[in-house]
Structure formats: C-alpha cells, structure tokens
Amino acid sequence: MFSDNKQYNAIGSYLKSQFGCKIIKLSLDGGFTCPNRDGTLSNDGCIFCSHKGSGDFTVPRDIHVQKQLDSQIERLTPKWPSGKYIAYFQSYTNTYADIDTLRQLFYESLSHPHVIGLAIATRPDCLSEEILELLCELNQKTTLWIELGLQTIHEKTAQLINRQYPIETFDKTLEQLNKRQIKTVVHLIFGLPNETRNEILQSVQYIASKDIFGVKIHLLHVLKDTPLSQMYDQGKVSTLEKDVYINLVVDALELLPPEITIHRLTGDAPRNLLIAPRWSTDKKSVLNGIDAELKRRGSWQGIKQLRINNE
Ligand code: SF4
What we know:
Strand content: 15-25%
Number of domains: 1
Strand order of the largest sheet: 1-2-3-4-5-6-8
Bound molecules: iron/sulfur cluster
C-alpha cells in the first residue's frame, strides 16, 4: 500500500513519486525571531525551545539565504547528483517580518535552480491576511507547505509549555490556509510534561480529523539552557522511555488517515545540546523499532480509521 516497504506514508516516498527523483529539505535560517521570545507575547519562549529557535541544524544566521542554499547543495550533490531541494525556513517564526522582507526572502530562495519548493515553519498567530495572500501567490507557482507548531491540543499543557496561543487560533488559521488550498504540516510533541498516553492520542485524533497535508511527530527533548532543562534538573519532569515512545508512535500512526504524509517520527536533537533522553541519538534504532512494532502488530497507518469507518 505504501512505497519503499514502509507501513506508513513517508514524505520522502511521496515526494519521490511526485517529482521522480530524490527531494531533500534544506534547513535555513532567515534571520527571524519569535513573538514568544522578543517580548511581544513573552520573553521566555516555549519551554523546550533552544537558543536557535528550534533551528539547530541550520547554518549561521548571518549568512545570506542564497549562500546557505549554495553551501548545502554543494555538499549534498556528490551523494545525490540528480536530487532537488525544498528550501525549509526552520528557525524561529518564519513569517514574523514585514511583507516585503518575506516576499524577497521566499522568492530569492525559489530562484535557486535546484530548489523546487518551499516549506515554512511558523506560529498560527503569525499569518496575517497579507501574508496569507503572499503564500497563496507562492502556492500557485511552486510546491509549498506551512508547518504549524501545535504540539498539543490540551490547554493546560499549552500553558505549561508557554505556547502563548489557544487551540482556536490554530483552528482558524488552518481554515484560512485550507480556504487557499495551502498545504499544512502539523507538529506534535510526545512526552510533554504531565500528559498521559490518552491525552497524547487525543491530540493525534484531533489532527487526524482535520484537513491537513502532513504530520511531524517529535519526541520531547530536554536541551541545555532551556526552561525545560531547569524543570528537569529540579526533578519536575521526566522523559519517555524508548519502548513507550515507539508504542505511542505506532498507536498514532494507526489513527492517522493514510493520505496524511509523515514528515518525522523521531526528534532530531543536536548531541551537544541534548540532556535527555540520550537513547534518541540513535535515530536509526528508533525508526527500526517503529517498523518492527508495526510489523509485529500486522498494522499500518490508518488501520484504526478503517476499523472506525467499517463499524
Ligand atoms: S514558537 Fe517556535 S521559535 Fe517561538 S519559542 Fe516556541 S518553539 Fe521557539
């Protein structure tokens, strides 16, 4: 049912089937900040967010975006000579600037001959009408998706992690994006403080019921110099065990409709910043564990949806 012997709709396989070649996402830093860090909403940021605004794999922010693209493409070309690229604006809130700056930045990155699309990570409260119109224009010219950091549907957790927007804002923005046929990828974090397995799966079920293009599942990482690391040091939070996480991811995949693309199933934390859980640095073993658990259950993405629909 799915390509590449996977039991789920992996974005890599989806893009390969659309473009006929390997498509690689290049993480970029467009020099943005975030209203949750610059004092507009708060100075503290989300409790898990690193000092690079969750863009720890991007190149230094003072380098022009064109140069960031050139250097990464040059490095990757020997491995993927016929590969194409998606410019991924990852660090901080990538629509948090004036419209002219955004227009220039997005069009500049698209002008690179090897770039075939754009992925833009942002907050749902940072998409004004004029920005939505710019995205609508871009959407007609290229492959585009917007990534929204929802993390959880539960208000008590949203407050605890200092997300600084309510679920209604996410719902309204998703509606606006869908109205313009702009694809949305939703980020969830598994293992947020005090969330039970049921609550985590309620968040999954919620987004499974929405019209979205993709999902990114992150494991909660405790990174150095974050508010979360202080809570961790004080024994106020703990992180998930590997087998618990793997089981949760498989439970989530079973709930997600098969047409939703899966963009990530593990966190990707920089080793030099990661405090816990250390097992997550072996990404391959986590992904293999998810594949093995799906096989053990004789399961695949959407299996529970099928059951619900057939009842
Ligand atoms: S919204 Fe994103 S960039 Fe801003 S503090 Fe939260 S995780 Fe960090």
